[in-house]
Design goal:
Layout: E1 6-12, H1 17-29, E2 35-41, H2 44-51, H3 60-77, H4 85-93, H5 97-109, H6 114-127, H7 135-144, H8 149-159, H9 162-177, E3 185-190, E4 193-198, H10 203-210
Parallel strand pairs: 1-2
Antiparallel strand pairs: 1-3, 3-4
Length: 220
């Protein structure tokens, strides 16, 4: 990282509502803390598979808790996540592989749009309860994020290329190498070593480790 900034990598997948919470908080802090925030689109399915982790919806008690937890977190973090039991089932049947490849293609070409594009995927899936796995849905998200139809078309073509598939796979493997077993996985490079934080509720701890002040989820 340049100019004494702490590099902070955020490994995320738009299928994960907790990733959205962590993403928004880090976006708010990227100019408050001395950090160089790097978005690292990865594939949660690959991480779950590699580590033997199971989606929360597979455990009824955990699912029950998660529905309440996300409602409370949405309010506290001021992120418009809306959740119902159906959403947790949708997480299991709808793959975000296409969306994450599309985001990866953008990361390789026009990374300045990563923040708005990722946000629109979460908005569509976790706020509007709409599909993000079909091609039309992905193009609709790109439009919402302000991408030109030429760029969106180009990214769509790139999405099925070996270069993009490999890049997504490599990023996912990198998250695993840091010790990730779920998302969001936040890695702060401080004192020449990587520090892994799991979940959106460990950012206060992240602040403490890198010597920054925690000012709540919405720093003014």
């Amino acid at each position: 990282a340049g100019m004494g900034l702490t590099a902070v990598e955020l490994f995320y997948d738009v299928v994960s509502p907790y990733s959205w919470l962590g993403f928004e908080v880090l976006c708010r802090y990227q100019h408050v803390w001395k950090i160089d925030l790097r978005f690292r689109p990865a594939f949660l399915g690959g991480i779950m598979h590699a580590t033997g982790n199971k989606p929360p919806a597979m455990l009824p008690k955990r699912e029950e808790y998660m529905l309440k937890d996300i409602k409370r977190m949405a309010k506290y973090y001021q992120v418009p996540v809306k959740i119902s039991g159906d959403d947790l089932q949708r997480m299991l049947v709808k793959s975000t592989l296409g969306a994450m490849r599309f985001i990866t293609a953008l990361d390789m070409t026009e990374p300045k749009y990563l923040e708005p594009l990722s946000r629109e995927f979460w908005m569509r899936f976790w706020s509007q309860h709409e599909d993000i796995s079909e091609v039309e849905s992905i193009l609709a998200v790109a439009r919402q994020a302000g991408l030109s139809s030429e760029l969106a078309q180009k990214l769509l073509e790139m999405s099925s290329s070996p270069a993009v598939k490999n890049r997504l796979k490599e990023t996912t493997e990198e998250a695993l190498k840091y010790g990730a077993f779920g998302m969001p996985a936040v890695v702060a490079h401080f004192n020449e070593e990587p520090h892994l934080f799991f979940g959106s509720d460990r950012l206060e701890l992240l602040a403490s480790v890198i010597g920054e002040k925690w000012l709540g989820p919405v720093p003014s």
